[in-house]
Amino acid sequence: MEIYIVRPGDTVDAIADAYHVSAQSIIYNNQLPYPYPLAVGQALLLSAGSPSPNGNPMAVTGGYAYPFISRWVLEQTLPYLSDLFIFSYGFTPEGELIPPALDDTFMVSMAKSFGTAPILTLTPFGPTGQFSNYLISQVVNSEPAKQTLIANLSAQIQERGFEGVDIDFEYILPEDKVPFANFVRDVRTAVNELGYPVSVALAPKVSDSQTGLLYEGKDYGLLGEAADSVLLMTYEWGYTYGPPMAVAPLNKVRQVVEYALTKIPANKINLGIPNYGYDWTLPFVQGSSKAATIGNVQAVQIAIANDAIIQFDETAQSPYFRYVSEGLSHEVWFEDVRSLSAKFGLAKEYGLRGMGYWQVMQLFRANWLLLADSFTIL
Question: Which range marks the domain in which residue 348 is found?
Fold first, then answer.
């Protein structure tokens, strides 16, 4: 695989001729719609030369998905996933399990048909659909509620064919830091007895003393010991209600990884990767601005439609562009094969266990082709 950056005057046919690849492969790899216009600065993944030699580092790859995922997207994605994190299962304060509103049976069966492990993702969503630290406190501090929830998780695994549990709790109260780690440990003990692993998602910390409700309730050292593996949620620096910036700037991601490695073995750490971008309307006004979530393929189409030139921030290792539509200025940050290659390089550099994607609801084929060219997927 080779990455090519589009220059003024380029066409698919001209690039294909210059690099001795088929035009159809460029179109397929990069999901280019007819009549195949390109944006200046766009990063294209070319299938050039022979396949990568043997000896690629091995990696586990996981992706989160909701039950309303397109079956076609799921079918296209599963060959590249070790684990499919089915999002999500909630619970009551008494520990009763609450399944997703939509039937996820097809996700379990499709995952198994591709040799991918279907993973039950447990989240503490309250009645408003937001993370509830009240729910967390009620369960992790009550032995009867905790044991009821663990028993229900075990039953769901055995009855439905799940092959593991992922615990994605956020906004944990500082005073629940140790009870939460004990909860993860107890879930792991029960699920391991069934022959399956337990993972836990970690907010992107850079120090033990980092303040904020996202961070204070998650102790990297305790949770690294309690779970079989962890996912570093290394994304959302650029987010819906924040100012325009890269979603996962590599310099910030690196800081999180380096801190995590002081607390958790590399072979337990999965690097979080965003499969999306944001489109901000300018000027940004804190408290009232709201960015639109977009797909990575969609971002390039927005650039093409508005004759925008795609730039690349060397520090963040992320693509971005600006455009004007209906008199309003916009700024877009997203992921492309350059930014993903940099993240894969970081995972290799530190010998991490693998990658975890939030989320795989939209197909970004170039990502998966590049991933398969960079790693041997377990």
Answer: 58-275+337-377
